[in-house]
Amino acid sequence: MSTSRLLHPLPAATASCSAVRARTAKSSAVQEFRAFVRRKAHGWGKGERAAEALALIVTELVTNVCQHSGSPEVTVHLFAYKRTVGVRVSDNGRWRDPAGEHPGSADEDLHGRGLRLVAAYAEAVSIRRSSVGTSVTATVAAEMRSLVRVPDEAL
Questions:
Q1: 48-64 helix and 28-43 helix, angle to the nearest 10 degrees
Q2: In degrees rounded to 5, what are phi and psi of residue 102?
Q3: What distance in Å separates the CA atoms of residue 61 and residue 30, rounded to the nearest whole number?
Q4: CA 120, CA 117: separation in Å to the nearest integer?
Q5: 1 CB burial (10 A radius; 0-12, 13-18, 19+)
Q6: Which of 22-26, 57-61, 132-136, 150-154 has the lowest mean pLDDT?
Q7: pLDDT value, residue 113
Q8: pLDDT for 48-60, tens place per residue?
Q9: What secondary structure, in 3-state letters, does the chain show?
Q10: Are 114 and 56 in contact (CB under 8 A)?
Q11: pLDDT digit string, tens, across residues 81-93
Q12: For the segment 39-48, what is each residue's pLDDT rounded down to a tens digit?
């Protein structure tokens, strides 16, 4: 059985650039994936704001996999369109609702906000759960890193 939850609509176009990386689902993978996303977004000419938004989204989603899925591996697929750039984070674990995992703990306020943060930074988010794992896809606006300068005499 597969369930899908669409928080915002996703574009139905073919990506102009893409890159995939898989790692063992452990906390040290978070920093590595963050650097991977920033490096690729910058290399594709996407803006700093898009790269930072994707880095935050990847941090939240990979952390969720490491802490809540029980999956041995996490895969990050980064892709770019002309006006958007996105990421899909997939695992082969069993999704568990993290609500109530830390009741009464001193850090209770720190848990359960990851997907809300992702939705706040993304233009579109899709969550797909199935018997073989969970996949979350998020896209953000991909402003260009450099602006085209118009010569003064053209104005």
A1: 150
A2: -125, 45
A3: 9
A4: 5
A5: exposed
A6: 150-154
A7: 74
A8: 999 999 999 999 9
A9: CCEEEECCCCCCCCCCEEEEEEEECCCHHHHHHHHHHHHHHHHCCECHHHHHHHHHHHHHHHHHHHHHHCCCEEEEEEEECCCEEEEEEEECCCCCCCCCCCCCCCCHHHCCCHHHHHHHHCCEEEEEEECCEEEEEEEEECCECCCCCCCHHHC
A10: no
A11: 888 899 999 999 8
A12: 999 999 998 9
Could you tell me the two tokens for 116?
A: 């809300």
Q: CA of 122: how far to CAs of 39, 74, 76, 95, 136, in Å?
A: 19, 20, 16, 21, 12
5 strand-pairing partners: 127
Over its C-alpha atoms, the chain yields an Rg (Å, rounded) of 17
Nearest-angstrom CA–CA distance, 14 and 8: 18
- pTM value > 0.85: no
- Distance, CA of 10 to CA of 27 (rounded, Å): 28
| pLDDT value of position 50 | 93
